[in-house]
């Protein structure tokens, strides 16, 4: 948040921009089919008019969602680079894109032929956005960013850093909105209700649980800024964002009221009736600021800085603002027994869809039918769509054949599509969003005779995944400690990967869910009932990539005089290819686990398959 922006006229400007009414400074605009150079020229023109020396452009929306609707894909529109992480910095004579190692290759491709330089932010010693700006701007110059779509956490951090360096900050203007003439409108997708038989708890029960937590923390109000928190609390899902179940909405819970802010066009009569019966008051999406302004000055309001934008924080600034932990994020991370039971079935259904896909893929390859990454992706989605309760894929499937498998977050489309041949290896990372759960599975398979290097890479990854999956660990262990357990196997073989080892998964919600994750930076403790992925990898640029991923459930292991110990219950049932295994690299206990696992896979999936599919699965599940 820009601490200097407090006047009422600037508040009105910010609201106008959020509502798509454009910038108050210019009527000029550019369409999406223009070149990157033309878009940069347009941006620089409005920067000059506003006296802004550097402007930061992100794919950020008012909730800091990982996946955003097209309206908020500003960095992608400007630079052409897709992906969930990246920021562009533009000055009068330079532009650069900061992104992490998952997107290096994708960014290099997208930026080729443009002036925008790639800044590899995961590399050691690389300056952050604010460090670079402080080093390259002179005292008294001005940095701008769109504060309405930037989290309070990020905006406060930037503003403090820039101001300490003698730089001015402007965060009240959406400059991209002033030049993007055919910018999409905010989505109005209809939301749908989740039956209590899937959720495991009613709206009333969840609200009571939340209020008990608020009482313990002496809170008068709590703003649920993150969209999936509202979905969980009020038992609904949305259709605003492709491959994401969360709509644009806010919820404000006080001691007396539950106020749900959502566009009326998204509500069915059934939804209105259910919410009103549960004591929920419905308000328009844009009424959130006025409702925050109406809170009593003495109200202790929990506002999560990571998921509240500039304008909302300012509207609530008269309250006693508490920037603590997101209560609902903690509550929904611990899945109840009903959710776990449904998710187990979802993963069995999903495993059967994967087997159907693999059987089809290998048959096509044997018969010489032309195959491509995009064709394979669409067919896998079609198999998942046959599962009752299917809503959509849980993310854009990663179909990385050969060198594309080395691109951590490669997303195939009409432009990037490549043929799949009877050679090299194929990395397939995909999932489904169902009424009864969210799935995320990665398998790497051979399309021809694998090389010795491919076998060794694959086996090192498999061994590291199993090392963590089979681990028992003390209560209180955090994601960073578990990350090291997984990586040490790869390190032993002189291999490494730069992405996280695992992430939380929502129940019929977002595929990347907090608070937990398994990475070297995670201080979050693993709790009983959490659903998490384990997905190490090994990537050789221009050659191939390997990743293997299973979902796990944290359960109680041993309870001894030294305290409680937790372990992971495996939830994913999909064959792990054994043709790529270099047996000499795999410990005997891991071979035993894998053989037992495949017995269980065969048992659980066979009833859902036809004769051809069962025959393929039986072969895949043969003992190592």
Structural class: alpha+beta
Overall geometric form: globular
What is the CA–CA distance across the termini? 57 Å
CATH topology of the largest domain: Creatine Amidinohydrolase
Strand fraction: 15-25%
Q: Number of DSSP strands?
A: 28
Question: What's the CATH class label of the largest domain?
Answer: Alpha Beta
Q: Tell me, rounded to a whole number, the average pLDDT.
A: 92
The radius of gyration over CA amounts to: 25 Å
How is the main sheet built? 6 strands, mixed
CATH architecture label of the largest domain: Alpha-Beta Complex
Task: Please identify which CATH superfamily of the largest domain we are dealing with.
Answer: Creatinase/methionine aminopeptidase superfamily
Strand order of the largest sheet: 4-3-2-1-5-6
List the main descriptive attributes of the protein structure presented here.
624 residues, alpha+beta, Creatine Amidinohydrolase, Chain A, domain 1, Creatine Amidinohydrolase, six-stranded mixed beta sheet, 36% helix
Question: In words, what does this structure look like?
Answer:
The protein has 624 residues and is of the alpha+beta class. The protein folds into three domains: 8-179, Creatine Amidinohydrolase, Chain A, domain 1 (3-Layer(aba) Sandwich); 192-331, Creatine Amidinohydrolase, Chain A, domain 1; 337-620, Creatinase/methionine aminopeptidase superfamily (Creatine Amidinohydrolase), CATH 3.90.230. It has 20 helices and 28 strands. α15 packs across α16 and α17 packs antiparallel against α18. The radius of gyration is 25 Å and the shape is globular.
């Amino acid at each position: 948040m820009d601490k200097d922006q407090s006047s009422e006229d600037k508040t009105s400007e910010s609201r106008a921009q959020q509502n798509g009414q454009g910038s108050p400074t210019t009527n000029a605009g550019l369409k999406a089919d223009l070149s990157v150079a033309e878009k940069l020229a347009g941006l620089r023109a409005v920067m000059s008019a506003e006296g802004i020396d550097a402007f930061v452009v992100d794919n950020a929306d008012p909730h800091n969602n990982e996946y955003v609707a097209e309206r908020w894909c500003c960095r992608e529109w400007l630079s052409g680079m897709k992906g969930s992480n990246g920021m562009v910095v533009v000055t009068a004579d330079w532009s650069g894109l900061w992104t992490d190692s998952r997107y290096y290759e994708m960014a290099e491709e997208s930026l080729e032929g443009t002036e925008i330089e790639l800044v590899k932010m995961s590399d050691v010693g690389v300056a952050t956005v604010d460090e670079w700006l402080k080093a390259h701007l002179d005292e008294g110059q001005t940095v701008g960013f769109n504060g309405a779509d930037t989290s309070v956490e990020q905006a406060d951090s930037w503003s403090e850093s820039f101001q300490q360096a003698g730089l001015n900050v402007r965060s009240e203007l959406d400059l991209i909105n002033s030049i993007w003439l055919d910018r999409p409108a905010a989505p109005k997708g209809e939301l749908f209700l989740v039956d209590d038989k899937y959720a495991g708890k009613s709206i009333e029960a969840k609200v009571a649980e939340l209020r008990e937590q608020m009482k313990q923390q002496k809170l008068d109000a709590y703003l649920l800024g993150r969209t999936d928190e509202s979905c969980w609390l009020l038992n609904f899902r949305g259709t605003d964002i492709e491959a994401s179940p969360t709509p644009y909405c806010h919820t404000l819970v006080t001691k007396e009221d539950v106020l749900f802010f959502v566009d009326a066009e998204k509500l069915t009569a059934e939804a209105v009736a259910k919410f009103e019966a549960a004591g929920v008051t419905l308000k328009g999406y844009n009424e959130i600021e006025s409702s925050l302004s109406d809170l009593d000055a003495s109200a202790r309001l929990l506002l999560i800085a990571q998921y509240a934008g500039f304008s909302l924080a300012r509207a609530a600034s008269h309250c006693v603002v508490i920037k603590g932990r997101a209560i609902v994020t903690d509550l929904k991370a611990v899945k109840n027994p009903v959710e776990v039971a449904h998710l187990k079935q979802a993963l069995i259904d999903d495993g059967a869809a994967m087997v159907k896909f693999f059987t089809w893929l290998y048959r096509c390859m044997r018969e010489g039918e032309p195959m491509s990454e995009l064709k394979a992706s669409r067919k896998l989605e079609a198999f998942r769509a046959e599962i009752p309760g299917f809503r959509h894929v849980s993310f854009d499937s990663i179909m990385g054949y050969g060198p594309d498998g080395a691109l951590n977050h490669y997303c195939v489309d009409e432009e990037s599509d490549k043929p799949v041949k009877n050679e090299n290896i194929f990395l397939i990372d995909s999932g489904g969003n169902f009424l009864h759960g969210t799935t995320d599975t990665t398998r790497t398979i051979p399309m021809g005779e694998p090389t010795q290097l491919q076998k060794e890479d694959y086996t090192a990854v498999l061994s590291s995944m199993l090392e963590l999956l089979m681990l028992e660990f003390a209560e209180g262990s955090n994601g960073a400690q578990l990350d090291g357990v997984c990586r040490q196997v790869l390190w032993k073989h002189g291999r490494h990967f730069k992405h996280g080892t695992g992430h939380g998964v929502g129940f019929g919600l977002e595929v990347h869910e907090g608070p937990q994750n398994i990475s070297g930076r995670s201080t979050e403790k693993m709790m009983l009932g959490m659903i998490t992925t384990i997905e190490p990898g090994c990537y050789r640029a221009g050659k191939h990539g390997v990743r293997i991923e299973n979902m796990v459930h944290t359960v109680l292991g041993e309870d001894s005089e030294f305290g409680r110990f937790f372990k992971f219950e495996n939830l994913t049932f999909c064959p792990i290819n054994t043709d790529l295994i270099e047996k000499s690299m795999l410990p005997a206990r891991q071979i035993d686990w894998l053989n037992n696992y495949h017995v269980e896979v065969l048992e659980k999936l066979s009833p859902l398959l036809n004769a051809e599919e069962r025959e393929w699965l039986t072969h895949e599940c043969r003992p190592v």
